[in-house]
Amino acid sequence: MQPQQQQQRQRWVRFEHGGETGFGTLGDDDTVHEHRGNMFEHPEPTGRVFLRSGVRLLTPTEPTKVIALWNNFHALGEKLKLAVPAEPLYLLKAPNSYLAHGEPIRKPLCEGKVVFEGELGIVIGRTCTAVAESEALAHVFGYTCANDVTVADILNRDASFAQWVRAKGFDTFCPMGPVVATGLDPATLVVRTILNGEERQNYPISDMRFAVQQLVSLISQDMTLHPGDVILCGTSVGVGSMKPGSLVEVEIEGIGRLGNRFG
Predict the structure, then answer these.
(1) Per-residue pLDDT for 10 more than 70?
(2) CA distances (Å), 175 to each of 94, 135, 188, in order?
(3) What's the chain's average pLDDT?
(4) Residue 6, pLDDT score
(5) Contact 249, 163 (CB under 8 A)
(6) Which of 59, 115, 132, 213 has a CA-to-CA distance to 172 between 20 and 30 Å?
(7) Rounded to an integer, what is the distance from CA 124 to the centroid of its chain?
(8) Beta strands 56-57 and 41-51: pairing type?
(9) How big, in percent rounded to 5, are the helix, strand and coil portions of the chain?
């Protein structure tokens, strides 16, 4: 995989067509150019081209884990009067929560307020263990949109134990996509979250407490990151609740718009 700063700008997708799964690049004309091999290491075009409307998009990668950050934006931390963390604070999203663009977010069987959290996802492209911050971006393949869905009422319902994983681990609670975009400078990106056509979040990635290279480096000190793994950067102000039937869209220029209906 090429270092991030030398990568060509491309939008990679995984898809299902005719009962088979594949991957390729999404063109500006909404055509999918199929590739073979490994998305992260010298993929080769097959020559087959599909209309985007003729394939079903899947999650953009198949992660071994999705890591989700807490309290990683200055604006939200200051609004909630949270202490400044000395190191990244994170949890894992369960594999059963992974969801593709366009697929419905299932209403949990339990009651409680379900909230959206529009986020940038860092997609790892090269296995990394204890990488230096100066080398971290060379291990990043690209970026995707994500929605870190949460049952807010569960988080602190038991005073003896904060239930982060349960609150954020329900089936379908981690939509990601629609693509992995390469060749972007994450510091220039802005996350927008739209609920039923109304903008609810609009915040810059440059406001993160821990930048992309810091997150990759520091988390890789704790656990090995594998190609396809995703780090959700955390969210900022504007988080809100969803009602059944709501359409939640997370848009980042250069990546696209992730859309999923709730319930």
Answers:
(1) yes
(2) 12, 29, 23
(3) 96
(4) 55
(5) no
(6) 213
(7) 11
(8) unpaired
(9) 20, 40, 40
Q: In what order do the strands lie in the sheet with 256-261?
A: 198-204, 190-195, 247-252, 256-261
Q: Is the pLDDT of residue 5 over 50?
A: no
Q: 257 near 193, Cβ under 8 Å?
A: no
Written as six digits, the tokens of 138 are 């060379």
CA distance 112 to 109: 10
- How many beta carbons lie within 10 A of that of residue 3, not counting itself? 12
How far is C-alpha 170 from the chain's CA centre? 16
| Gap between the Cα atoms of 230 and 117, Å rounded | 16
What's the predicted TM-score (pTM) here?
A: 0.96
Count of CB atoms situated within 10 Å of the CB of 24: 25
pLDDT at 166: 96
Span 197-212, pLDDT tens digits: 999 999 999 999 999 9
Higher pLDDT, 18 or 3: 18
Ramachandran sector of residue 101 (left: φ over 0; alpha: ψ -120 to 50; beta: rest): beta
Question: CA 230, 236, 242, 246 torsion: positive or negative?
Answer: negative
Domains of the chain, earliest start first: 59-261 (3.90.850.10)
The structure tokens listed for 153 are: 């009422």
